[in-house]
User: Fold this.
Amino acid sequence: MFSIVNISLGVAFASIIYRYLIYPSFLSPLSKIPSAHFTASWSPLWILWIRYTDEEVQTIHKAHLQHGPIVRLGPKEVSVNCVDGGLRTIYAGGFEKPYFYDQFRNYGVENMFSMKDNKSHAARKRMLSNVFSKSFLQSSKDALEMTRLILFDRLLPTLDSSAVKDTPVEVYELNYGTTMDFVSSYLFGVSNDANFILDVDMRKRFLSWYWGRPDHSFWIQEIPRMTTIFRSIGINLVPKWVHGANAEIEAWLLGKCKAAEQSISGASEYHGTHPIVYGQLRDSCKKSRAESGSAEKIEFSVQEETLIASELLDHVGAGMDTSGITLTYIYWEMSRNPELQERLRKELLTLSPTLEMRNGSTLPSARSVDALPLLHAIVMETLRRHGAIPGSQPRITPSTPTSVAGSPPLPGGVRISAQAYSLHRNEQVFPEAEAWRPERWLDADANQKEKMLRWFWAFGSGPRMCVGNNLAMH
Assistant:
């Protein structure tokens, strides 16, 4: 009996050694991929620590510089840094999202960004893609009017007042307020938007909720099950105030949805512009309701309200955050380039009517602004050099073994990702990649520009690329 127990324990121990050390280190298809760390083949602890200490982007970039276009980050995780065989296979090829994206749910409800399966995402995207198309934005009278109001009634007077009083401007915070006003106006209509440019107290309060949360996202992002278990027994890896901040933001957004609904239904006095995105989602929900045979209902159900709110809260956060960061980097780079400031000013003065406060009654067309080459180059170079989302965008390999970036066929369930930070620093594509040089977009010939655009990944790529990329550029 004793010998049988010993044999059983020995077999169990050998099985564990084989499964967690020998197979992943020497026999797994991933064993042929160079490891970013000597423990990466058999333990995820190294990459978890790198993420916990917020060193992921730089560490992965250094690994690619050392090992090439594909590196192993963990027993079942790899990173790629190439277009052919990399981005095209993973993102254009429709690899689905992992649990990593559950953290982006709002009200406990999926939105387009958090959806893991491609079919659900495609259905939601069809609801919204029209109002985020470039042609719609450039021809929208509402988009032009909200831009006019925000620029000439809020932003420019605020900056002019600071200039007259010779007082400094906290541009990072103001840029977040500006981008929030633009995004929320497009979603809910200008009469229901955040008005964060002028409502400084509310802006500060909202940003205090918003900016404090990312420092604690690691637990929900990387080890959600353990986080949930610990919370159930009274151990909060994520501080309680983070949940409180989320609740405050969700309540604020629900208020905006209700205000937009009242504007559309005529329950409140309507001023300004149409709630474009809210209205689109509202109409799509009503269409779905009619198709299901329940069109006689007048009011939205709680489920419908939270579906719309979850989607729009994701748009609000993504639009404010990324554009606010990008604008701030543009300000910073331009402040160090007086000659470029003058060139841009001359280019902007070619617009008709000109962008001056005394011409505040009208704006040049969106198409004419979009056609300004230097402005476009400045925005593109800032997005490349100072990407607001520089880190990994994870996906999961499909059940059918698939080769990526020259690797052996990888089994299903492997976490795989690319990061814009590394793609944008390929010296073969972007010479002097660490330098901020808008001229590279002006001086490149057709072949070089096409190559740069293939490696440009500020908005992702494939069917799940950022749906709001045209609004961001607008």
Remarks:
- The longest helix spans residues 302-335.
- The CA atoms of residues 340 and 436 lie 12 Å apart.
- The beta strands are 70-74, 77-80, 395-396, 415-417.
- The chain has 21 helices and four strands.
